[in-house]
Amino acid sequence: MRPMRRIARSGAAALVAVALAAPALAAEVKVTVGHNKLDPYQVKIAVGDTVVFHNVDEMPGGHTVAAKDGSFESPPLAKDQKWSHAFEKAGSYPILIKQHPDAVGEIVVE
User: Fold this and answer.
1) Which of 34, 53, 90, 96 fits as disulfide partner to 57, beta carbons 3.0 to 4.6 Å?
2) CB neighbours of 64 closer than 8 A, spacing ≥ 6?
3) What superfamily would CATH give domain 25-109?
4) Domain spans of the chain?
5) Nearest residue to 92 via CA among 104, 103, 77
6) Residues 72 and 87: beta-carbon distance below 8 Å
7) CB of 53 within 8 A of CB of 28?
């Protein structure tokens, strides 16, 4: 019986080792887009995470979320539409709603 216990323990140890070595799954963070507002206005995420922008307000022509540096831009989002962007590089990404340029925010990728 002792050999079986050793095998079982070795198998459990191997499973733990695999679980610890597995890469973390990318997270998905939601930002609500509305009239003159991004909520939250700042989010901190890890490299590889995705931000989902969800427009909750009516706007003729939709709301467009864009990076101030032009690195990304959503299509115009009608009410209840969502658009997502994955961030593959660390850095700070100031963003705005193009139809409301005073509605600003920031995505911090660590």
Assistant:
1) 34
2) 73, 74, 75, 76, 77, 97, 98, 99
3) Cupredoxins -  blue copper proteins (2.60.40.420)
4) 25-109
5) 104
6) no
7) no
